Amino acid sequence: MIRGGVIRVGVLGAAGRMGSLVCETIADAEGVELVAAVDPTASLGATTASGVEISPDPGVLSLAGSDVAVDFTHPDVAFENVIACLDAGIHTVVGTSGFTHERLEELSVRVGSGPPNVAVVPNFAIGAVLMMWMAEKAAPWFDRAEVIELHHDGKADAPSGTAISTAERLAAARDSGGWPERGDSTELLPGARGAAAGPIRVHAVRLPGIVASQEVLFGTTGQTLTIRHDTFDRSAFMPGVLAAVKAVPDLSGLTVGLEAILGL
Ligand SMILES: NC(=O)c1ccc[n+]([C@@H]2O[C@H](COP(=O)([O-])OP(=O)(O)OC[C@H]3O[C@@H](n4cnc5c(N)ncnc54)[C@H](O)[C@@H]3O)[C@@H](O)[C@H]2O)c1
């Protein structure tokens, strides 16, 4: 339970692309208050847009007074940040990528049933979460499905974590009998049929001008269904971040993904 009803929030990675936007979002939102901002690259005296000083000291003491910490830092440091917050009794919402299945298992043991609680959310875009959820619902009704993800050409890896996760969920969504075995085209150029993520083919497009999009295509006799989500800028992630910050004090232990927070 949060004293006074207002959740006091500290942001780790406050000078970064996501962290700075999270600081603005928290400062402008009802029911939450930005009380701390941390980023080792911040110069002395630097502040967030709302005037909160950004501490260059990455130690958890910089988060003093926070009920909830939000981490948008780097995969190399995020895990240690969460552990430090747990030890300090601060709930944590993590957006930083790189939380493997092994790391999540380790974290689950450390968090136990909480409090403090932790929410690790690989994708805060509510539309993307709904796209995956709808795709799972559609999966039993079609013979084949393929995933096309489209990102800017600066993205380091391919396919995206969301595409891999979608393919895993589609594979698991047909528990009785799996996906029907079908012959496939001979590839005249290697990779023409995309990457095989189990029974689901995944295609990655990289072009300047795109932010992040994904299509899930289904086919069966005489009909197809396409579910598509587009992200146009980072503001797409903010409603999801805010929902997680408000929910995390009342969750129990470790929560992965936005689904439970949205009630899906
Ligand atoms: N979950 C999602 O929906 C989602 C959406 C977008 C980005 N991301 C992920 O969020 C992370 C951050 O992305 P970004 O584009 O903002 O990166 P960025 O490089 O712009 O910002 C990261 C910031 O973290 C700071 N930092 C590094 N170590 C720190 C520490 N120990 N304590 C505090 N701050 C520290 C860096 O100085 C930097 O300013 C990435 O892993 C990215 O993949 C997740």
Provide keyphrases for this structure.
binds nicotinamide-adenine-dinucleotide, elongated, 7-stranded parallel β-sheet, 264 residues, alpha/beta, Dihydrodipicolinate Reductase, domain 2, Rossmann fold
Radius of gyration (Å): 20 Å
Strands, count: 12
β-strand amount: 15-25%
Give the topology string: H per helix, E per strand.
EHEEEHEHEHEHEEEEHEH
Span of the ends, CA to CA: 24 Å
The CATH homologous superfamily of the largest domain is named: NAD(P)-binding Rossmann-like Domain
Low-confidence stretches: none
The averaged pLDDT comes out at 93
Shape from CA axes? elongated
Proportion of helical residues: 25-40%
What's the architecture of the largest domain, going by CATH?
3-Layer(aba) Sandwich
Structural domains: how many: 2
Q: Which CATH top level class of the largest domain fits?
A: Alpha Beta
Bound small molecules, deduplicated: nicotinamide-adenine-dinucleotide
Q: What class would the helix/strand composition place it in?
A: alpha/beta
Number of helix segments?
7
Describe what you observe in this structure:
It contains 7 helices and 12 strands. By secondary structure, it is an alpha/beta fold. Helix 3 links the parallel strand 5 and strand 6. The strands form 2 sheets. It has a 7-stranded parallel β-sheet with strand order 3-2-1-4-5-6-12, with helices on both faces. It is elongated and about 60 Å long. The structure holds nicotinamide-adenine-dinucleotide (NAD). The site of nicotinamide-adenine-dinucleotide (NAD) has 26 residues, from helix 1 and helix 2. The site of nicotinamide-adenine-dinucleotide has 26 residues, from helix 1 and helix 2.
